[in-house]
Amino acid sequence: MYRRSSAKERVKCSLNSIANYVQLMCPYVSIARLMGFIPYNIVSSKFVYSKPYFVYSTIIFISYMMYLAFCTYQINFHYREIYTFMLRRLHVTFNIIFGLVLFTSAYASKRSVLYLIERTSQISRMLPPNIFSSLAKNMYTKDALMFFLSFSLTLYQFTNYTKPLLCAVWIIFFAILMINTLYTNNVYVLEACLKEINDALVKLREILINDEPHLLRRVYHSRKNPILLAELRTLKKQHLEISEVVRMMDSAFGAPILTILILLMIDISFNLYKYLVMINQGGRVTELFSINLFFVFYHVLEVILIIWLTEKSKTQCR
């Protein structure tokens, strides 16, 4: 009991020690750098472009392309006798092809993503340190759960695929998870910034409402209350900066997220079709719960998460 409680306390202390954007996003961008998505170094608590990691990301990208192309050849020609079921072979081939598109779009937008992360880091300085610890708890819990589900579902397919193909599928789905995580977590941080601005506006409104009527005059605001005007200008500037970052996010993550959504829809369609075929053999229900159905639920959850966070941020912008 003592060891367990001390471990929990250490985890809690480590989460509470997160006080800025760099500390919050460091695990994610480190994994993204390892996968070749973001070539960066941390200099003076800033994410800066790194040429050595650019070379590394290029090598990793070429390796991805060659390996996935090799797997496409393997499943359609070399292991054709193993994957005799046409639908299954077509399903995996589509996944690999869109995996190639995903890696290409992620490689092409790596500089934009890095610049976006740095701009988000600058804007997030408006948040108090306790907000980051709260964000860390929510984000790490969500992402740990999503990683566990992704790893479990992919590992379950170990007996259904050859090892090279299983590795290819795992790389693709982990890349989807990583890009989704980067996108949703940056949206999450921007949503917290917008909420901070909205809360500040509510406080200013309460101050105005609670003041005497003559304090609402324009002359009073221009001469007697410069602090209030300065606060409003600061909030307006911060809101404009966040709006600019949101537009940058659309351009930086637009192609990868669109590719991910298409890939998820294809995977949902194939898995749902296979599930419906399995439970309707001869008009009888043969298997109520199957791995295909769990894949459908998992991918639907990913799509819902992206849409929910995006809509939540839009609500804060209004």
From TrEMBL:
Keywords: Cell membrane, Membrane, Receptor, Transducer, Transmembrane, Transmembrane helix
Family to which the UniProt record says this protein belongs: Belongs to the insect chemoreceptor superfamily. Gustatory receptor (GR) family.
Subcellular location: Cell membrane
Membrane topology according to the record: Multi-pass membrane protein
Stored Pfam families: 7tm_7
Disulfide bond recorded as keyword: no
Gene Ontology terms describing biological process: sensory perception of taste; signal transduction
Native organism: Ceratina calcarata
The name this protein goes by in its record: Gustatory receptor
Gene: LOC108632724
Organism classification: Eukaryota, Metazoa, Ecdysozoa, Arthropoda, Hexapoda
Function: Gustatory receptor which mediates acceptance or avoidance behavior, depending on its substrates.
